[in-house]
Specification:
Distance between the termini: 33 Å
Order of helices and strands: HEHHEHEHEHEEHHHH
Structural class: alpha/beta
Mean pLDDT: 85
CATH superfamily of the largest domain: P-loop containing nucleotide triphosphate hydrolases
Shape: elongated
Oligomer: single chain
Strand content: 15-25%
Low-confidence stretches: 158-163
CATH class of the largest domain: Alpha Beta
Length: 246
């Protein structure tokens, strides 16, 4: 379905997480879209309110594609994205002699694809959830008369999901080892982890033990439930509550 959506689209928007732009890109797919198919590709960073805006702009400027960013929670960024789409629409309609263009939205699970569509159309046309993989089926949404957005699951394969993305479904995944690696990789980047959890970070395992104790995550027999603590960290990330230095 992902490849079919891309083939059917005139423009593809790859949504990435502003907190981890390189980690949430899909270079293999980007190359296929831009070089083999010759289609227009835009990279749009979600959750821009969770990073420094100037640092984000600098990161995006280094990418070889048209870029933009948005924050759904702050309702910012829709205007710049629309301007890019309107310019592309004019160019592509003239080039291909089309009345309308189709825009496909792709990216990892829980990356902000539905939130981007909601922001662009100013309404809840695309349901979203903090649980990855929520969107099912294909929806066509009119941005304006000559631009259609294709909202699809648009989810890259799980085998491409690196440890530092952390956008997994905590209800379906054993997360302890995963989150220990995540916290190790991000030990100097998570700017509000201690404030948000009320727990001092010294090392990943000790942090999860202290956090489990603080939250009262205790198994029968008095053992700390570290798996439950790890799942809470994943939820904080998925819900856009953890800020990152980039």
């Amino acid at each position: 379905m992902l490849k079919k959506t891309i083939r059917d689209s005139d423009v593809i928007i790859e949504v990435v997480d502003a907190r981890n732009i390189e980690g949430t890109r899909n270079p293999k797919l980007e190359k296929w879209i831009s070089e083999k198919l010759g289609k227009e590709l835009m990279i749009v960073a979600s959750k821009s309110d969770l990073v420094d805006e100037e640092a984000l702009k600098h990161k995006l400027k280094s990418l070889p594609f048209k870029t933009a960013y948005f924050s759904y929670s702050k309702r910012k960024g829709a205007g710049s994205i629309k301007k890019l789409l309107y310019v592309l629409s004019y160019y592509l309609k003239k080039k291909a002699n089309k009345d309308k263009i189709k825009v496909g939205i792709v990216g990892y699970a829980n990356i902000g694809k539905s939130s981007l569509i909601d922001l662009l159309v100013r309404g809840k046309k695309a349901k979203n959830s903090p649980v990855p993989g929520f969107t099912r089926g294909v929806k066509w949404i009119k941005l304006r008369d000559d631009i259609l957005l294709i909202d699809t699951p648009g989810i890259f394969e799980n085998k491409e999901l690196a440890v530092d993305k952390c956008n997994i479904d905590p209800e379906k995944t054993e997360t302890l080892d995963y989150v220990i690696d995540f916290l190790e990789n991000y030990r100097n980047k998570l700017s509000n982890l201690e404030e948000l959890t009320g727990t001092v970070f010294e090392n990943p395992l000790q942090f999860l033990k202290d956090y489990a104790k603080k939250r009262g995550f205790i198994k029968k027999g008095g053992e700390l439930d570290l798996e439950r603590a790890a799942k809470e960290i994943v939820r904080l990330w998925n819900q856009g509550k953890l800020r990152v230095h980039i």
